[in-house]
Amino acid sequence: MARERVRKNAVDEFKLVLISSSSASGRPNHIAPSNEVVGFIITSPYAKGCRDTVIDSRVDGLQRIFETDPRFMQLQYPLFFPHGNIGYYREIPLNRPVKHSKRDVEVTESEDPDEKGARKYITMREFYNYKLMIRLSEGLTPHLGGRLWKQYIVDAFTVIEQYRLDWIRDHQTTIRSDLYHNIRDAMQKRDRNPSNIGKAIILPASFTGSTRYMTPYFKDSIAICRTLGHPSLFLTMTTNTKWPEIQRILKHMPGVDVADAPDVVARIFKMKVDQLMDMIKKKNCFGRCIGVMHVIEFQKRGLPHTHILIWLHHDDRPKTTEQIDKMVSAEISDPEIDPVGYNVMSNYMIHRSCGPDYTKSLCMVKGNFIKHFPKRYNSHTFFNECGFPIYKRRRTGITINKKGVNLDNRFVVPFNRDLLVHFQCHMNLEICNNSRSLKYLFKYCLKGHDTAIMCLRKTRIGTSATIPKKAPKGPIDEVKHYLNGRYVCASEVFWRIFAFDIHSRWPSVERLPIHLTGKKHVSFKAGDVLEDVCDKEI
């Protein structure tokens, strides 16, 4: 048992310290205390991606177990599995519902003989997706586990992703890809070995979240923009943990705080996003919609939120300041005329206190306002020299008290009153009236996963751990580059295990394989003859 080892040998205690840093775009990553469980992945330059998990058996001695071993999770989380129930293994049969023509019933069969090439076994993601669901016929011990519950699922997702990446790494020699002219150049140099052609380790576009996955969708967004014009609106919606749907579910889970139930938050937020998209596309809450793109994000120490770009019909786009004022407001509602709007605004649409008197605010960096708050007073809405709208912010004398500070219209985040009252959460609405912002908007929505910088320290002696040596240089490893520094929060884990979409676009884009002469991408196997590859692609 682990306690026996602790009693016999002194155990060093370590802690992880996140270091504030800037992203590639220059935006700072603010580090603040939060009740969040995350997975932080550091790849070793000298070992494979699989975990080095070893158990000390009283009978057989030391044994290494892998992620697909049915004892893997049970040994790490005995509080959840005190009876040692069997976990995931590769040969769990997949039951398919089969309808019979003579009777309107469904009979589950582990394998359909008429369906050739169908899967026989469930995947690891499907197994943990089943485990996440709340069933009245089963115990809720894992769901009541608090932070340990989040650690268990974060651990499970990292295993799922590592299992997929290991498959990609192990099958690099089966299928390779390179430009056609590179293969011809290799033939001219009399290098006829296909194993030397192509990148060493490729993370394909079929892997969700990879660079090759994001790049085509960025180009698709530009293609939609080229056809429909620049977007009309930019909408951001953030989860509200006080939604009544979330509170009703938590009543069935006594003692569980909303911070320890990200699975419930993910499912409710998915319903809210679907409802919002239905209002935009079908109910025309802003006018006739001709195009939509939305992305789900999971920032560090934050709740899941979505960014939505909306294309409106030319006749419904806000062109004048009067039309903008009807759609977007940046002023506090009068509590006597609109008490409902005033209460919602005070909860979700007021920027925190910042300025010379609040230098410790997260939006203050070296005395500068990185969020551009507080804004200036404006008697009316107008467009600046770059074409961006400056919203109306008058001196109305109406304020909202936050932590003993009275905040006025200068601290209001632009919003749409009807949507704000309907969804009861933070909903920032901006007018897109300039083509110069297109590249920023699309890259902002498709910037990829989060990463972080970490320092490992011994808590007993208070010194930093030894910095590992630099990895030896070698061929390009896109799998390692994707994993190194990967920051996986609990909110993202539940969203991905539930297989919810992390982005969507409408209308769809058909990609045509247009290329320059000699620039065609070709795929070939490790044993193919390069002359045959060139002849086939001519």
Structural key phrases:
23 strands, 18% strand, two-stranded antiparallel ribbon, alpha+beta
Overview of the structural elements:
The chain is built from 15 helices and 23 strands. With 538 residues, it is an alpha+beta fold. It has a domain at 329-413. It has a 5-stranded antiparallel beta sheet, sandwiched between helices. Helix 4 crosses helix 14 (490-497) and helix 8 (262-281) crosses helix 14. The protein is globular and about 80 Å long. The chain starts with a helix and ends with a helix. The model is unreliable at 22-26, 100-114 and 461-469 (pLDDT under 50).
Tell me, what's the shape?
Answer: globular
**Runs with pLDDT <50, length 5+?**
22-26, 100-114, 461-469
Strand order of the largest sheet: 19-10-12-11-22
Q: How many whole angstroms does the radius of gyration measure? A: 27 Å
Query: Strand tally, please?
Result: 23
Oligomeric status: single chain
Strand content: 15-25%
Given the structure, what is the number of helices? 15
Structural class: alpha+beta
Largest sheet: 5 strands, antiparallel
Give the termini separation: 65 Å
- Mean pLDDT over all positions: 76
What is the helix content?
Answer: 25-40%
How do the helices and strands line up, and which of them pair or pack?
Blueprint: H1 2-8, E1 14-19, E2 21-22, E3 28-29, E4 38-41, E5 53-57, E6 61-65, H2 72-76, E7 96-99, E8 106-109, H3 124-132, H4 147-170, E9 176-179, H5 180-188, H6 211-228, E10 233-238, H7 244-250, H8 262-281, E11 289-297, E12 305-312, H9 321-327, H10 339-348, E13 364-365, E14 368-369, E15 382-383, E16 389-390, E17 400-402, E18 405-407, H11 417-423, E19 427-431, H12 438-445, E20 453-458, H13 478-483, E21 486-489, H14 490-497, E22 503-506, E23 521-524, H15 530-537
Helix pairs in contact: 4-14, 5-15, 6-12, 8-14
